[in-house]
Amino acid sequence: MFLPENPDAFVALEKTQLEGTQYSTVQIEPGQTITLPQPFMFTVRPTVRHVNARGAEILTEVLCMYDNAGEHFLPGADSLTSPTTQHLAQSKNIFFLFDPTQDVRFRTRLQGLSADPQVGQVLRAFRQDNVLLEMAARIRRHAGIPADEKLRQPLTIVVTKSDIWGGLLPGIDLKNEPYQLEERTSGLILGRVKKDFIEMVSRQIQNLLAETVPEFVSAVNDISAQALYIPVSATGGSTILDPKSGLLKVRASDVKPAWVTVPFLYEFSRWGKLVGSIRKEGPTAE
């Protein structure tokens, strides 16, 4: 997908695996091994042209991310020998990916709006709200908090494949990224996210989901008091269905992701200093 030898070749889109190179087997003591998911580690620091470049040593953060598949939240998937989701109890932020094309009610609404093959697929019913509730139950259990207490971490519902369903949000152009770079007279730069716009889009998506998959929004409200809904398209366009393999594929050169950085930038703006924000009352956070 990234830096391919032939950018015009079609590439299959793989889902998160339950085993393989993304996991490490660790021996705790003789005869006892456990399988752990490998984290994705990133260093986040101001660039030399950032307004706070002089404070880079203080402001530099290490971003540690884990990628869990929905199947990790099925009964028996999290065990003493394979604690694949226990890290969530220590997470500062949680991104939950909701796929509208996996719900028959969404696919019905998208008939005639999108020619993407995922809209016409006949799939077994998959209750994504059950995955969300199981995730919350495990976080509460591992964090030792009451079963009726809302999660303490901010919850972002990343609504994927917006290139397919974005037409259900009238008057909103998801092609433009909701941030801007502000250059000072000194030549230094600060990026600012448009929080008002992002939160307005979030409310519209919440309303759309409440109309189409009300049980999912009910589950979100049950576990979080500070949920945000953000549309994302990893490819920026429709996939094709390979008739031979039955796999969804995309031409690498056609990939134009949309809003994929927004969930991160919004959270970074809460940290302050690295990413600023714009609201109607004026810029904030430097």
Mind explaining what this structure looks like?
This protein has 286 residues and is an alpha/beta fold. The chain has one domain (10-284). It is 26% helix and 23% strand. The chain is built from 8 helices and 14 strands. The chain has helices at 56-59, 104-110, 117-120, 128-143, 162-165, 195-212, 214-223, 262-271; strands at residues 10-12, 23-29, 32-37, 40-44, 61-65, 94-98, 155-159, 179-183, 189-194, 227-231, 240-241, 248-251, 276-279, 282-284. The strands form 5 sheets. A 4-stranded mixed beta sheet has the order 8-9-13-14. It has a 3-stranded antiparallel beta sheet with strand order 1-12-11, with no helix packed on it. The model has no long low-confidence stretch (mean pLDDT 84).
